[in-house]
Write a structure and sequence with these properties.
Blueprint: H1 2-28, E1 37-45, E2 52-58, E3 62-63, H2 68-77, E4 99-107, E5 110-118, H3 121-127
Antiparallel strand pairs: 1-2, 1-4, 2-3, 4-5
């Protein structure tokens, strides 16, 4: 009798182990749209201190962006389209400190390749709803 119980236990353990192994590839096979969003954001000043970059991850919010949750919310309201991001109102000086903003990666399965020139960091921050403030 003990042999039968041991055999049944071993069989159940084998089935459970096989189920755990089979579950891992299924999770990895999720479509890109289910994987959230991952963007590399870069500011390249024309003059001055050098290039700065952060990673923004959404779904859940994270990465190296200092205000990832706010940036993800801003982009979510625009459907991940930087051209549809609602600009913030705010006064900026007339300082001329041009730079280029870039975003590359994917937004819930949709490729993102954004590039735009701005006259100064303040204008860039306002026009992108704060996404590029880092």
């Amino acid at each position: 009798m003990r042999k039968r119980q041991l055999g049944a236990l071993l069989a159940a353990a084998a089935v459970a182990a096989a189920g755990g192994v089979a579950a891992a590839p299924a999770a990895a096979a999720q479509p890109a749209s289910a994987a959230g969003a991952r963007l590399e954001l870069t500011i390249t000043p024309e003059h001055g201190e050098g290039e700065r970059s952060v990673v923004l991850e959404c779904g859940p919010a994270g990465g190296s962006h200092p205000r990832a949750a706010e940036a993800c919310e801003t982009l979510a309201r625009a459907g991940g389209d930087f051209g549809r991001v609602r600009a913030r109102s705010g006064a900026c000086t007339m300082q001329f400190d041009p730079g280029v903003l870039r975003a590359a990666g994917h937004w819930y399965g949709t490729p993102v390749d954004y590039r735009r020139d701005f006259s100064n960091p303040c204008v860039a921050g306002n026009e992108t709803g704060g996404v590029f403030e880092f």
